[in-house]
Design a protein that fits this description.
502 residues, mainly beta, Thrombin, subunit H, 7-stranded antiparallel sheet, 6-stranded mixed sheet
């Protein structure tokens, strides 16, 4: 009788199979790491780079949003970055302090010279109404054979180098003055000529280019041209006030102020020394330095008894009386007492922001109820939140004034500021501790993934995982804003918008 094959109850170890399994696992792990690295690199490549001026070792360079040095600090003058999403950097060098002469060039993120062939290549620098510096983002002024022109950041010619001078219209975006043979004209950021160079001077009419422009001819007569090149008022007025009044214009004719329409017809000419704005029912007028409201027939709607008056919603006015601000309606009923040093209205959120003598801001809703009071640190209407410092804590509110958790508001963040036993630290979106609670002050994660932390009076930074990038070592008491990119902190002069390590 045949017998079956006998098997050992304790089989022998098959080393070949064991080694094969180990190798397979190792290869699998290696593939996972390779894929992860590829994905990380791809994410890094696909991520839009942003660039910032860097000041280190008394020289200027450039960093990106990761805090990596893109251009090593080697320049004596600040490198200007007109558009921080484009790797076009303008450098000034070989400066002669005695003659004021200097050279300029454009370089890219590889420190290669680009946009060559010009005697000079420069940004167009402007200022806002608060005196802060900003740059036209997508155009550069060039000089060739002693004449000026404009190119975009790709080097495309927008206007030829045939002008004696190219400057900006102060405080106005998309408004570039061109000068040829002592005559002034205006172009927009695309190089399109809005006003031919036929005038003695050009001024802004309102606060944006959309409001139009005042032109002054060689006979010192004033007119108005729209941003769409339409002649609104011919150059026949002694003066036109620089204020946007919708379809109306405040002009001076034969020495007298008049409110006229675009057809030149007189609307108002009596009962006022000035007109501040147009309202839903008429105009805010000034008489003997006191403000009131009248309709377009000259009938008084609100008595002139306010130091300042402006309509912020139909029939609702922010008013100033006895050097303090409050809110009234069209019947002069007080809706908010005159207890504030200033009141602004945010149209996007339909909220009033009223500041008092202690620099605290009250957030006031459409019913004039105070929703919250504290030190306003941020109002972000794009992401629909308000950030306040109340006592020694930061709190978040939606645009209805309802308190929210930072995890509800800052949905893109990986770590969140928290406080325990009087100290700050960070948690994840589920409340799990990411860092120890050891900091005296700290910030939320910025858009580049970094947070600033303060310990023993000094500031440092952590990355988006709560890992220390640089230990607290900087005294930033003079800084109005605390922010870090990597190991670099925002400089004292916010107007310059640079990062440094001092």
């Amino acid at each position: 009788m045949a017998r079956g094959k006998r098997y050992e109850t304790e089989g022998k170890l098959n080393y070949k199979k064991v080694f094969a399994v180990i190798i397979a696992i190792a290869v699998f792990v290696m593939i996972i790491f390779m894929v992860r690295n590829v994905l990380n690199e791809r994410e890094k490549i696909n991520r839009d780079n942003k660039y910032f001026a860097l000041y280190a070792n008394k020289k200027w360079g450039v960093i990106n949003q990761e805090g990596e040095e893109i251009i090593e600090p080697a320049y004596q003058e600040m490198i200007v970055i007109p558009n921080n999403t484009r790797d076009v950097f303008i450098c000034t060098y070989d400066i002669n302090e005695e003659t004021g002469e200097y050279k300029t060039k454009a370089i890219n993120s590889k420190n290669e010279e680009i946009l060559t062939g010009y005697e000079q290549i420069e940004v167009l620098q402007n200022i806002d109404k608060n005196g802060n510096t900003w740059y036209e983002e997508n155009i550069l002024r060039i000089k060739k054979d002693g004449k000026y022109g404009l190119i975009d950041l790709n080097g495309k010619e927008l206007i030829p180098t045939e002008y004696d001078e190219i400057t900006v219209l102060s405080e106005m975006e998309n408004s570039i003055l061109i000068k040829k043979e002592e005559k002034v004209g205006l172009v927009n950021d695309n190089g399109s000529i809005i006003i031919e160079p036929n005038y003695k001077d050009i001024k802004s009419l309102g606060t944006t280019y959309k409001d139009g422009y005042i032109t002054i001819d060689e006979n010192d007569k004033y007119g108005v041209i729209s941003a769409t090149k339409k002649q609104i008022l011919e150059n026949e007025y002694e003066e036109i006030s620089q204020k946007y009044l919708g379809e109306y214009y405040l002009v001076k004719e034969e020495g007298k102020l008049k409110l006229i329409n675009s057809s030149g017809e007189t609307i108002l000419e009596e009962g006022f020394d000035d007109i501040k704005s147009v309202t839903s029912k008429g105009v805010i007028f000034v008489k003997d330095n006191i403000c009131g409201e009248m309709d377009k027939e000259g009938n008084i709607l609100i008595d002139a008894e306010y130091q300042d008056l402006r309509e912020v919603r139909d029939g609702i006015y922010v008013a100033k009386q006895n050097d303090s601000y409050g809110i009234i309606d069209s019947d002069q009923n007080i809706k908010l007492n005159f207890d504030y040093t200033g009141i602004t209205y945010n149209e996007d959120s339909n909220l009033f922001l009223a500041e008092d003598l202690e620099y605290k801001t009250s957030i006031i809703d459409e019913n004039f109820d105070v929703k919250v009071m504290g030190i306003l640190t941020e109002m972000n209407t794009d992401k629909s939140y308000i950030r306040m410092r109340i006592g020694d804590e930061y709190k978040y509110y939606d645009l209805k004034g309802e308190e929210k958790q930072n995890t509800e508001i800052l949905k893109d963040n990986k770590i969140f500021l928290s406080k325990k036993d009087g100290k700050y630290g960070y948690v994840d979106s589920k409340g799990n501790e990411i860092t120890e609670f050891i900091y005296d002050d700290a910030t939320e994660q910025n858009e580049y993934g970094f947070v600033a932390v303060k310990k023993d009076g000094l500031w440092g930074s952590l990355d988006e995982n709560g890992k220390e990038v640089i230990s607290p070592k900087y005294n930033l008491e003079e800084n109005l804003q605390i922010d870090f990119i990597g190991k670099w902190h925002l400089g004292e002069d916010l107007n310059m918008n640079y990062y440094c390590d001092k």
